[in-house]
Design goal:
By secondary structure, the chain is mostly helical. It has a domain of 80 residues. The chain has four helices and no strands. It is rod-shaped, with a radius of gyration of 57 Å. This is Coiled-coil domain-containing protein 192. Keywords: Coiled coil.
Length: 154
């Protein structure tokens, strides 16, 4: 089998093309290996993250219990607050009624005192008009301060 020069040159060109393709494929293979390595690192990192999340999820039960307990405590406090507000409203109403009654009693006492003062003044006038005793005599039983003032005047 004798090769001619043209065949030999054609084979050399094919060989060079094959070598260039091999070189190109080697470069692509290296790039693919690098990408594969990076992807494996990411997979490893994601698996670690997933494992961590799974552990947190597994231990999430205590968190759920804590949240439930806090929700129950909040509901209890809200119920206590409502009860306290109702009691406060009842006490305010009771106080308001008591205050109104005391104000009414005070007004009644003032009216009775005013009537008593008017009656006593009327009695004093009739006593002072009906008796020939000195004017100071009429005031002796009423107010010691008025008596003192009258003595100072004379």
């Amino acid at each position: 089998m004798a090769f001619t020069l043209a065949q030999f040159e054609a084979l050399e060109i094919c060989l060079k093309e094959a070598e260039e393709k091999a070189k190109s494929l080697s470069e692509q293979l290296a790039a693919s290996e690098e990408t594969k390595s990076k992807l494996l690192e990411q997979v490893s990192w994601l698996e670690g993250k997933l494992q961590t999340l799974d552990q947190k999820e597994d231990s999430g039960e205590p968190y759920q219990k804590i949240v439930l307990a806090k929700d129950q405590h909040i509901e209890k406090l809200q119920a206590e607050l409502k009860t306290s507000q109702e009691q406060l409203t009842a006490h305010k109403l009771k106080h308001k009624r008591k205050l109104k009654k005391l104000q009414t009693d005070l007004a009644t006492a003032k009216q009775e005192a005013a009537i008593t003062v008017l009656e006593l003044n009327e009695k004093i006038r009739t006593l002072c008009e009906g008796k020939p005793a000195p004017r100071d005599f009429c005031f002796q039983s009423l107010n010691p301060l008025k008596k003192e003032r009258k003595k100072k005047h004379f």
